[in-house]
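Ticket #4471: structure output looks truncated?

Reporter: J.K.
Steps to reproduce: submitted the chain below (204 residues) through the standard prediction queue, then opened the result file.
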Amino acid sequence: MPLVEQTRARTQELFQELFDRRGIASTIEVKAFDPNAEPGSIDYVAADLRWCSGLALGFGYWINGEWDSSSWPSCYARDEDDLITAEDLTSDGDPDGSPPEFLGEWWIAQELADVVASDKLAKILRSDHYWSEYRNMGGPEIASTGYGLAAAALAEATDGVVASFDCAFDIEHNGETAGQFLSWWGDAQIDWYGPESFLARTAS
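Returned output as attached by the reporter:
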């Protein structure tokens, strides 16, 4: 499992590179913290903490020294509920069910079968865990960009892929490598929100 610090630092690096390339005069800082800390306190994670199943964190985004927003990366163990069962298969009553060849497979197998190379998909399906990264619905531009960069940082570190099943982006991008995803994600967010949205809100 990669270090949380590796994910945090790479997310920050990707964000700053995006700002610099687009001529946005902001400095980004990403901080990893425990979202379950006592109210009124911030518990930043130790530099030697590694990701493990069940670990849920917050990534806080500071722009020019001012906190802006947060996203929420988590690592989950795959369990029996993630497997395709006989009840999920195509039938007269459920024509949109799963084909029989996916019986017993992780449900993501069907979603990625036609977009990920077979050897890479086999590696993904052997894994007993996965990551999820989200930001609050309708949240600020910074977190709405950063959570994609954090997902890419994790995919990069684990030779994984990025996918969304809640319309965070077009399904044609599901199964992309970190490099493929990064080739468009950051620019698309800046183009959508406008460069001025990525400046510190308290800037004079």
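Triage note (M.O.): checked the attachment and the full token line is present. The mean pLDDT is 90.
Status: closed, working as intended.
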